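Annual report, structural modelling task.

Input specification for the magnesium ion complex:
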Amino acid sequence: MISPSSDLQAQWAQVRAMLRAEFGDTAFGTWLKPLEVARLDGDRVVMTVPTQFMRDWIVAHYGDRIRSMWAGVNPAVRSIALSVRPPEPRGAAAAAAVDPVPVPPPVAGCEPAEVAPEFEEMGARLDPRFTFDSFVVGKPNEFAVAAAEKVAASLSPPFNPLFLYGGVGLGKTHLMHAIGWRIREVTPQRRVVYLSAEKFMYQFVRALRRKDTMSFKELFRSVDVLMVDDVQFISGKESTQEEFFHTFNALVDRGRQIVISADRSPADLSGLEERIRSRLGWGLVADIHPTTYELRLGILQTKAEKLGVEVPVRVMEFLAARITSNVRELEGALNRIVHHASFSGRPISIDTAREVLKDLLRAHDRRVTIEEIQRAVVEHYGIRMADMSSSRRARAVARPRQVAMYLAKQLTTRSLPEIGKRFGNRDHTTVMHAIRQIERLCEEDRSLAEDVAALRRRLQA
Ligand code: ADP
Ligand code: MG
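The model returned the following structure:
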């Protein structure tokens, strides 16, 4: 018996299998298993869940992935809708066995409803995927990880605040959630609140509107560990800055732990008042450096293992070399390749990877040219363009030249000989040496590491 609905159920079975592979048995069992597919409405798949709470959680944490998996399995699908299904009446199980198509819910219930603010919690929920166990440690992030673990393991703040900073997609949010999970596990009596700076502002503004800033203050000041993500977004709004600062000081005075993240260092948070900026830098400032090739490879290996998929080493090397921007994109690329293989039935190879990631790789290729890199470095260090290809060995020009070679390797797809050629016809071994040198120096020399990070940010902006 073939019907359109049985097709839909078969596709759903595929999507479910992918969800389970990607998010693991635990998250799948908790959040995704209760999902049911109801019907296809034009280009929209309508699914149902038992409760409003689950609906909101799934939309927030898995919505995008579910939609793209559906689109992968059935190209006609453009969007998904989740609605809350009515509770099953007694004996429904028997009835359902006869009629496999769930009763379509009312269409009005399909629109993603906004959560009423009253029911919102003060903080955001922690993502079950973001734990210390699932975080791959390498040179670029080991300092930040050690600091995060220390905070999670200490009953009184070892440093306050812990300020984590680094570019987008390098694991700041992941580490904050990991701190939260660890504390809940080890000292569950401690009250941990994690939220984005935006949410913090939103709550404050709401309290202002209701003339109820008192309880806002009480609420936050009763917390043992407060983590505020992406504080660069607080910049500018004066009253919120003020409130943030008061809350911050009150918590610090009471010996509570604060963890802050931002995409730049405290000193570079230009929208913040000077006293707040300097106060944020009093604790421990831990930066997460851009990934290295080794770390990217390590992350790919770990993720592939988690997905339970054999990915040829050469494909992982290819990805690690080509997708250098951040871990989020790297993960996305791996997921796409794995999913493609699972429904095309073709083995994973560099060729299929190229094909599946065409758009992504092109964006990376286009990203920066060697000349742009040279120009940025020249400006940054106040040297001359000619110094990029000259044979002068004075450190004041040789070091920036090495930085430029390093960035050329990281940010473009040029080979070592090609890079050498653009730097006054140097040999590829010279380029190799420059790259190693900069990699090594970045670990020892903070200011150099910051120069390199700033240049990279500027070039990739
Ligand atoms: P940020 O908050 O710095 O923008 P996220 O913490 O959201 O970045 O990380 C982006 C994605 O990359 C997340 O899925 C996260 O789990 C993953 N990720 C980042 N760094 C690592 C790492 N070292 N090991 C494993 N996963 C990582
Ligand atoms: Mg983040």
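Residues 90-120 have pLDDT under 50 and may be disordered.
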